[in-house]
Amino acid sequence: MRASAVLVAYLIGAVPVGWMVARAFGVSDIRSHGSGSIGATNVLRTLGRRAAIVTLLGDVLKGGLAVFTAAALSGGDPVVTGAATVAAVVGNCWSVFLGFRGGKGVATGLGALLWIVPWATLAALPVFVAVVATTRYVSLASLLASACVPLGAVMLRYPSPSAIAALVVAAIIAARHHANIARLRAGTEPRLGQQSGTHSPA
Q1: What is the pTM of this model?
Q2: C-alpha 23: how far from chain center
Q3: What is the C-alpha separation between 100 and 98, in angstroms, rounded?
Q4: Tens digit of each residue's pLDDT (9 = 90 or more) over 163-200
Q5: What are the structural domain ranges in the chain?
Q6: What residues contact residue 109 under an 8 Å CB cut-off, 6+ apart?
C-alpha cells in the first residue's frame, strides 16, 4: 500500500495542468513556446494572466491532492507522505503523460509542502513576494523561497521525513532552474511581465 500511495501521488502530480490550460486557450503545445515549461510563468508570458492563474491554482491544488490522497491510503504514515510530496513534484517535472517533460515543480511543491510543513511553507511565502516585488525575477524568488522551507521545517521541528522531503523538493526545484540560474548570472533572465515569443529563452 505504501508503494501504491506514492505511485498515486506521482500520477496526480503528473497531470499536465499547464499543457491542458494552454490547449483550452488555443495553444496546441505550450512546450513549443517560451521556455518549454508547462508552468504558470511560461503560460503567463505566452497566454496572459487569466490562463496563468488557472494553471497556478491547478498545480497548487494537485500538489495538495497528491499528498492528501497518499496520506489517506497510508493511514497518515509520515514516511509515505514525505515520499508522496517528492513524488508529486517529480510527476510535475517529469510527467509520464508528456514523455517525461513538464514544469519546474514550484506550484506543485507549494501545494504538497503546505500539507506536510504548512507553517514553514507559509513563512517562506513573504520571501517569494518580497523578491518578486523588488527584482521581478520569479525564478530567483522561487529558488530562495523553496530553500527557506526545509530550514523552516527544521527550526519548527517538523518530523524528519517531512523536513527531508522539503529539502529534496528544494533540490529538485534548484536543478530544474539550472538554465534560469545561468541567465540570472548573465543578466539575461526575463523579468515578470515580459512577453515571451515562441523562441524566447524565458
Answers
A1: 0.92
A2: 20
A3: 5
A4: 999 999 999 999 999 999 999 999 999 998 765 443 33
A5: 2-186
A6: 63, 85, 88, 89, 92, 146, 169, 172, 173
